[in-house]
Amino acid sequence: MRSLHISTTMLTTSWICRNCLSRISRPLLKRSIRLQSNAATSETIPPALLSRARAIVTEHKELTEKLSNGFDTRAAKKLGEYSPIVNALGEWDKANESVTELTSMIHDASTDPELRSLASDDLGETRTQLVNASQNLITSLVPVHPFAHLPCLLEIRPGAGGSEAAIFAGDLFRMYSAFCNRNGFRTNLLKYENVNGTTEAGVPLSEAIIEVENDGAYGVFRCEAGVHRVQRVPATETKGRTHTSAASVHVLPSLQENSAEEQDFDDPESDYYIDVKEVKLEVMRASGAGGQHVNKTESAVRLTHIPTNTVVAMQDSRSQHKNKEKAWALLRSRIAQSRREKREEEMANMRRSVIGVAKMGRGDKVRTYNWGQQRVTDHRSGTTVHDLDDVMGGGQTLEKVMEGVRSWLMERDVEALIADDANTK
C-alpha cells in the first residue's frame, strides 16, 4: 500500500469513508517483528543514525550495480548485511511521511471537518507504526556483538561474604539451570565444585561452569555478566540481622568442535588465537571425591597462559585427554573474552569525552536480590521486580529482568554509534 498523498481536489471533498482513508494512509508495516530493544521510544531517529542509514542505502545501490556487472563475493556479503537496514529505512520513511501528511491535514484550515476528524483518528495508530519503525531501524543499525551467535559458558563463583556467598553462588547456579530447562536450552555441566562434591541445595559452592550449547546463547546470557549481590538473613544468624554477600557471573563464548571459529585458532589476528609456546601444561593427580581412581592416575590438567597469567584447571573426567581438551576450550574462551573486553574498554574511554558513556564492567555490582523485600533490582537498566521466588526459579520474571538489561545494552550501543560518528567528523 502507498503512503497518503492528498491532492487539493481531495481536500475539498465533502466526505470520504473511514475505511478508504485508513486504506490509503497506512504504510506497509504489518510484518510482525520481535524487537531486541526498546532503545527507541519516540518517533524520531538521531540525525547521526539517520545519516548513517542513508549513506548505507547509497552504498547498497552502488553494490547492486557492481554485482549486475559480475559476481563479487565481498560485495555480495556486504549487500546482504545492508539489506535489513535498507528495508528498515524504507519502512521508516513511509511511516514518517504518513505522520507528516496526516498532521498537515489536521492543522490545515481548509481541510474538510469530517476528513480532519478521520485523519485525527488515524494519526495515533500511524504514530505507533512510526515508533515501531524507529525501533526496527535502530536495531538494524547497531552492529551485532561478534560472539552473539555462539554458545556460551556461565562461570559462577562466590565473592565477598564467606559461606553465605558460597551458598548464594549455588542459588544462582540453580537459577540459571532452571531458566535453561524452562526455555529449552541444552546444557552441559563442565565443572561443579563444593565442599562435599554434590549439587545439593544449600551446600556452599566454590565454582560452577555451565556450557549452554545452543547457538545464540551468548547473546541471551551476555546481560548476566557481573557481580550479583544478595541481602538476606543467613540461616546461621541468631540475631536476625541482614547480611550482604556477593557472587560473580562470567559469560564467555563457547567454541564447539568443528565450529566456524576453529579456523581462526591459527590466525594471530584472531581473538581465539593462543601461541602454544606461551602456555604451561601441568598434569597431576586429581583431588576430592571419586574413589581409588582419583589419587592413582595423573588425569587432572592445569594450563597457564603465561602472558596474562590466566590459569585453567580441569579434573572432572577420568581421562587426561578429555580434561586437556576441556581446559584448552575454556582457556581460549577466557582469552577471547578478555581481548574483546579490553577493546570495548578502550573504545568506551574514547567515547566518554564525546557523550559521557559509562561502561559497567563485569567487576561492578549489576544486580541485587533482597530476600526480606522479595525484590530484585538490576542497577544497569533500573528494572525492579517483586517476585523473587519466580526469579530464583528461572521463570518469566527473570526473563523480564534480562530483557530490560538487553534493552539497556542496546541503548549503550546506540550512544556508541553516535559517538563514533562524532569522532569521525
Describe this structure in words.
With 425 residues, the protein is an alpha+beta fold. The protein folds into two domains: 8-141, no CATH class; 152-423, 2-Layer Sandwich (Alpha-Beta Plaits), CATH 3.30.70.1660. 46% of the residues lie in helices and 16% in strands. It contains eleven helices and eleven strands. The strands form two sheets. It has an eight-stranded mixed sheet. A three-stranded antiparallel sheet has the order 6-7-8, with helices on one face. The protein is flat and about 90 Å long. The two termini are 39 Å apart.
Itemize the secondary structure elements and their pairings.
Blueprint: H1 8-11, H2 18-25, H3 47-68, H4 73-107, H5 113-141, E1 152-158, H6 162-182, E2 187-194, E3 205-212, H7 217-221, E4 226-232, E5 243-253, E6 279-284, H8 293-296, E7 300-305, E8 310-314, H9 320-355, E9 365-370, E10 375-378, E11 384-385, H10 388-392, H11 396-423
Parallel strand pairs: 4-9
Antiparallel strand pairs: 1-3, 1-5, 2-3, 4-5, 6-7, 7-8, 9-10, 10-11
Helix pairs in contact: 2-5, 3-4, 4-5, 9-11
Protein name: Release factor
Family: Belongs to the prokaryotic/mitochondrial release factor family.
GO molecular function: translation release factor activity
